[in-house]
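TASK: fixed-backbone design
INPUT:
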């Protein structure tokens, strides 16, 4: 009986959001509401895959420029070991395409993370990593105060890689670059 209640709630939420989109009276290029708070869902793939949730502050500096500041918590497994990353960063959104209710364009930014691995038969490993991000994003207006975004980033991380040995792991001494891809979806409320 509970799955029916959940699916009914999800469908009702989608109908309400669709109605807000159809009667949107604000544009994404307007500076009437320059600040937004949002929640994020992030997936990172590369040498491993992690998923997580986060929050973000978006500030519209100009009708074609917005800045995102975010914090994410990601978790998953790397080589069978529990791994979680705590990431902060920012990106500049250049809205080069779009109309009144949608914008799209390239994204550039920087980020930092604390990477944590819990090998089953060794001490917990930690590493601080920094990264540069480049990607593309799309944002849609969902009424006067809400918007939704989809973003894809290529990220180059500089840090110490974790080496795996069955049930144990160590941190490499030398710095190395490791690429990854991040997909982000977010919902924002504009103030």
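OUTPUT:
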């Amino acid at each position: 009986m509970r799955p029916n209640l959940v699916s009914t709630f999800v469908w009702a939420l989608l109908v309400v959001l669709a109605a807000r989109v159809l009667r949107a009276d604000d544009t994404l290029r307007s500076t009437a509401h320059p600040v937004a708070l949002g929640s994020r869902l992030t997936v990172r793939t590369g040498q491993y895959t992690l998923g997580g949730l986060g929050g973000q502050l978006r500030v519209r500096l100009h009708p074609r420029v917005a800045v995102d500041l975010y914090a994410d918590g990601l978790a998953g497994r790397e080589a069978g070991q529990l791994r979680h990353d705590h990431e902060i960063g920012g990106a500049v959104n250049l809205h080069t395409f779009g109309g009144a209710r949608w914008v799209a364009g390239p994204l550039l930014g920087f980020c930092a993370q604390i990477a944590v691995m819990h090998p089953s038969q060794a001490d917990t490993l930690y590493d601080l990593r920094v990264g540069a991000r480049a990607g593309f994003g799309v944002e849609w207006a969902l009424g006067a105060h809400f918007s939704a975004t989809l973003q894809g980033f290529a990220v180059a991380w500089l840090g110490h890689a974790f080496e795996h040995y069955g049930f144990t792991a160590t941190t490499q001494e030398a710095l190395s670059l490791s690429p990854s891809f991040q997909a982000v979806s977010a919902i924002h409320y504009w103030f």
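COMMENT: The chain is about 10% helix and 65% strand.
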